[in-house]
Amino acid sequence: MTNENTRVALVTGGSGGIGRAVVERLAEDGMAVAVHYAGNKARAEETVAAVREAGGRAIAVSGDVADEEAMSAAFDTVEEEFGGVDVVVNTAGIMLLSPVATLDLDDLDRIYRTNIRGTFVVSKQAARRVRGGGAIINFSTSVTRLLFPAYGAYVASKGAVEALTPVLAREMRGKDVTVNAVAPGPTATPLFLDGKDEATIEKLAKVPPLERLGVPGDIAEAVAFLAGPARWVNGQVLFTNGGAA
């Protein structure tokens, strides 16, 4: 158990990329963190070990974000270990690219399952369990504004997340819980870089006026803001992209 004044965060997809950066940033702010993973237990345990080595408190929890029973059990584990949940960050997501004309509808179903159903499943648990003074933070993408070709299915899924976020914020009336979304721009993560050649990466790095790709730490700073001091920001989508959109 943690000190009763310690805030507790659950980060889905917390074992790599932006998720790991979020875990480490919230731990720096003194939160106890639950590192959620779906398939890569070793990577999640590495993230937990890194937090503990830095003097923080962390555990790993597993489960398919689209499986209601699995995520209910994950929340149970966090509450049993740390005494409650104050912050839930939905970083878990998948990105499969294709022009609409040649889209494999099985890929569309996979994207839907993780990015839309998964966000709803986790949000449902969060809406019931996050303590007063807490925050629910979803993840969209700046491609909803940048409109890159081949991102249609991915953007459609994240557009759904953007639509859900302010509705849930209003449903949380009277509970002192904020609900916002972060919409990263091009960010140097394995998910983003996979399958892109050097010329494409250089071109994307020139899109923001700051003329670089984001790094996971840039996104984690925005999450820490929404999870901590930003109590008057609610029902919003925070575009975190260096001015790209």
Question: How helix-rich are the residues, as a percent range?
Answer: 40-55%
CATH class: Alpha Beta
Separate helix tally: 9
Number of domain units: 1
**Major beta sheet, specifics?**
7 strands, parallel
Terminus-to-terminus distance: 43 Å
CATH superfamily: NAD(P)-binding Rossmann-like Domain
Strand order of the largest sheet: 3-2-1-4-5-6-7
Quickly give the CATH architecture.
3-Layer(aba) Sandwich
List SSEs in N-to-C order.
EHEHEHEHEHHEHHHE
Which regions have little confidence, pLDDT < 50, spanning 5+ residues?
none
The shape, in one word, is globular
- Helix/sheet category: alpha/beta
Strand content: 15-25%
Report the strand count: 7
- On the 0 to 100 scale, the average pLDDT is 95
Radius of gyration: 17 Å
